[in-house]
Design brief:
It is built from 25 helices and 24 strands. It is an alpha+beta fold. The longest helix is centred in the middle third of the chain and has 29 residues. It binds adenosine-5'-triphosphate. It holds the Pfam family Kinesin.
Length: 793
């Protein structure tokens, strides 16, 4: 690249650069000693030829940017194709080179190589250290990170495996859509010799095993990142370039590998991630709206290199011989598709007049502001649990610092003794905080739209009816918008849509794929169980509850949490209820966020009522309020006059209805509160609902699905004195289960088998929801059975 072009590129810092098609190379390895040579694969110029096995007269041709046959040396591959790509990192660009192919095709040989035939990794690092640019007065610093993705978990290869959590490191994405791995080690290296030593040791940490097809088969995807950063004093900027060298694990046909159980599990993870890689390529080529990067860790990491902001090169490794025909055919077809992927390379330049290269963001997330980086640095230095700090030295005493693959918020690290101490709390980007901002964003979006509309109306000289006299108005009155029926209608629709977005969890969690949600949940459960084993119950509970956020319909998890709390006598503010249960009971899926929000509002209200017992104010539950059938008047009439248990005195929040999305009825978060003196006090939580929607007719109770109620714990026939853990067995809670009319749910009650559950269902269907458990006596339930229902099952 000419200096002029380089300057031009630098100016484009912060924006997507010019489009670069991903380069695809093909390399065929020589026949191994035990293989019988044949002519099944041939290469000429930039074309690979294979004979079609189905039709031997036909030759299939695949063209690539470059082809390397069995006689090609490691040196020629590096010099001809890899070195020119690596040169780009001196312009502040990122480059990714990854090897793809079936097991035993020569990927590890190409990337890692051997002592006699060093591969791309040692050659690249050597090249960087000997490059004349590195020897100029501009001071370059080089950092290395190396990690593997083994069975969908990320492990740092620069630290001993024993010191790592079995669930590995997480992958995160920042607000600028940069992927990073928090707490990954980045080590500064000052010479090739130092790197060689480090890399040699790290390779030993990699998961390899012997399979029938490869004696030293990689069981993981390995990613080595070399990062250089330098200070351009004349321009007051710091630049950073990175090269990622990736040795993907090879796809395997398990009928041929004859893998055992352990190898099969690895193979399953490898094949799955490669399958997702295929889907990503397919989606990119078809211009699909959703690219399934998130469906596997490997594709997530490759996100910037496949259709992202990194320059990309794929080396397709194939094994010669008829026996690999199917694999070769599939690999070549996949490679051909990948050629169409275009990346938009971006220069990583950081303007900072006062900073030196050692402070500035060689490893920071591209696009993150200085303040943010500074804050993170301070956080890390003050966070006593910071793993990176703990791991400041590796086994051999080398100083390390945390790094991320692609983007990384932890600036360089000299984890120094004289680091400035700050009081600031770690600012981890969590889902919860994102969800909070999501809600805030929604509100501000609506506000902005309304503001715009008002301005538009004013510019058209529109005067709202019924407003203050001309000349006295200080702007549009509060109801100015609603005066125009058309606008009012549109706003109502908009608000309804936003409300339904919240309702359908189109928040941050929705950005995660089901697989990712599942994996997150699994990781939390795993960690929770570990902590539980160690006796750290409270911490374990946090993880279990976190897991429920990702899999809100996993009932067993809720039950497990309950059991655990019960076992350890832990009383908490609320008892989570699985969304699936709510769904089964007839409501549309509601978000945890929404429920939490409603619960919080209602709880606040309860808290202000001094007449309520403390236990009644402890939290909220969702119960069902079956509005399907008519009230059980018949039963009630017959029970009239008989002595029934005393009325509940606890507060009951009723009618917190989560409406069906189909009919898009209003979200009427109205609630009634039964006070101890019997008079229901109406509490409206309907601020999220447009007035017009609230005023619309309520759905016909006969046709509508059962609605839901929020009910405060303690609102029981026992006068609300039960501890929170026992509240689920309060009369109201049991009634809610009964009134759901779902036999399976009813069978969770103590003493209820299939037959009784069916009886109850029939009864509820015919007579409508029960108001008291005693009503069950009408269908022949003895008092002892009814009492049992209140016991914990
Ligand atoms: N270009 C080459 N020249 C000489 N030997 C090669 C070449 N490519 C591969 N080999 C040899 O082939 C064997 C298998 O190669 P390698 O382990 O690199 O395969 P792989 O694709 O990484 O397999 P896996 O995915 O199972 O790890 C090794 O013994 C390696 O030395």
């Amino acid at each position: 690249m000419t200096p002029k072009a380089a300057t031009k590129r630098r100016r484009s810092s912060g924006k997507d650069g010019p489009a670069h098609r991903i380069k695809v190379l093909c390399r065929v390895r020589p026949f191994l000693k035990h293989e019988t040579p044949d002519n099944s694969v041939a290469m000429a110029d930039q074309t690979v030829k294979i004979v079609n096995q189905r039709n031997p007269d036909e030759v299939l041709l695949y063209s690539f940017d470059s082809c390397y046959d069995a006689s090609a040396s490691q040196q020629s591959l590096f010099q001809q194709d890899v070195r020119p790509l690596v040169d780009n990192i001196f312009q502040g660009l990122d480059a990714t080179i990854f090897c793809y192919g079936v097991t035993g095709a020569g990927k590890t040989h190409t990337v890692q190589g051997s002592t006699q035939q060093p591969g791309l990794v040692p050659r690249t690092v050597k090249y960087l250290f000997t490059n004349k640019r590195m020897r100029t007065k501009l001071r370059y610093t080089v950092h290395i990170s190396y990690y593997e993705i083994y069975k969908e978990a990320i492990f740092d290869l620069l630290v001993p495996r024993e010191s790592m959590s079995p669930s590995g490191l997480p992958i995160r994405e920042d607000g600028n859509k940069n992927i990073f791995i928090p707490n990954l080690t980045e080590q500064e290296v000052s010479s090739y010799a130092q790197f060689e030593q480090l890399f040699h040791r790290a390779c030993k940490n990699r998961s390899t095993a012997s399979t029938k097809l490869n004696l030293a088969s990689s069981r993981s995807h390995a990613i080595l990142t070399v990062q250089i950063s330098w200070r351009d004093v004349s321009r007051q900027t710091t630049l950073r370039g990175r090269v990622h060298l990736i040795d993907l694990a090879g796809s395997e046909d398990n009928r041929r590998t004859e893998n055992g159980k352990a190898r099969m599990a690895e193979s399953g993870a490898i094949n799955k991630s490669l399958f997702v890689l295929g889907q990503v390529v397919e989606a990119l080529n078809s211009g699909a709206h959703r690219i399934p990067y998130r469906d596997s860790k490997m594709t997530r990491i490759l996100q910037q290199s496949l259709g992202g902001q990194s320059l990309g090169m794929m080396i397709v490794n194939i094994a010669p011989g008829q026996q690999f025909y199917v694999e070769t055919y599939n690999t070549l077809n996949f490679a051909t598709k990948s050629k169409q992927i275009v990346n938009k390379a971006k220069v990583h330049e950081f303007h900072s007049p006062n900073a030196s290269t050692s402070d500035l963001p060689r490893n920071a997330v591209v696009g993150l502001g200085k303040a943010r980086r500074k804050s993170d640095r301070e956080d890390r230095m003050t966070d006593p649990t910071d793993r990176a700090t703990k791991r400041a030295r590796t086994a051999d005493g080398h100083q390390t610092r945390p790094l991320a693959h692609d983007a990384h918020r932890v600036p360089l690290g000299r984890v120094s003794a004289n680091a400035r101490v700050s009081d600031s709390k770690p600012q981890r980007r969590t889902l919860t905080s994102s969800r909070d901002t999501f809600d805030a964003e929604l509100e501000s979006r609506v506000e902005k739209i309304m503001e715009k509309k008002v301005k538009e109306l004013h510019s058209k000289g529109w005067q709202p009816t019924g407003t203050a006299k001309a000349g006295t108005s200080q702007g549009p009155p509060a109801n100015a918008i609603s005066a125009d029926p058309a606008i009012q209608h549109r706003l109502a629709m908009l608000e309804q849509r936003l409300a339904s977005q919240i309702q359908h969890n189109e928040g941050v969690l929705d950005l995660l794929s089901p697989t990712t949600k599942h994996k997150n949940a699994k990781a939390h459960v795993k960690r929770g169980k570990m902590l539980e084993k160690e006796g750290r119950v409270e911490e374990a509970l946090i993880h279990f509850e976190k897991a429920t956020e990702f899999v809100p319909d996993r009932e067993t998890l809720y039950q497990y949490i309950q059991k655990m709390k019960h076992k350890h006598g832990i009383v908490t503010d609320h008892v989570p209820i699985p969304v699936s249960r709510a769904n089964r009971l007839g409501a549309q899926p509601a978000t945890n966020a929404l429920l939490t929000k409603l619960a919080a509002v209602a709880k606040d209200d309860l808290a202000t009522d001094p007449s309520q017992p403390a236990s009644a104010q402890a939290g909220l539950f969702i119960t069902s309020r079956d509005s399907k059938g008519p009230p059980a008047r018949k039963v009630r009439r017959q029970l009239k006059g008989k002595a029934l248990p005393s009325q509940a005195t606890g507060p009951l929040l009723d009618q917190v209805a989560i409406p069906s999305a189909k009919s898009a009825p209003p979200i009427d978060f109205a609630a009634t509160q039964c006070t101890s003196n019997g008079g229901p006090a109406r509490l409206c939580l309907n601020s999220l609902t447009p007035q017009s929607a609230r005023d619309s007719p309520q759905p016909d109770p006969a046709s509508s699905k059962p609605a839901f109620s929020f009910m405060a714990p303690g609102a029981s026939g026992t006068g609300g004195t039960l501890p929170t853990t026992a509240v689920l067995r309060s009369e109201k809670a049991v009634l809610a289960i009964i009134n759901s009319g779902h036999p399976k749910l009813i069978m969770t009650l103590k003493g209820i088998g299939k037959k009784r559950a069916e009886q109850i269902k029939e009864f509820v269907n015919c007579e409508g929801p029960l108001e008291e458990l005693r009503e069950l006596a009408f269908i022949g339930f003895k008092e002892s059975v009814i009492k049992k229902l209140l016991e914990d099952s």
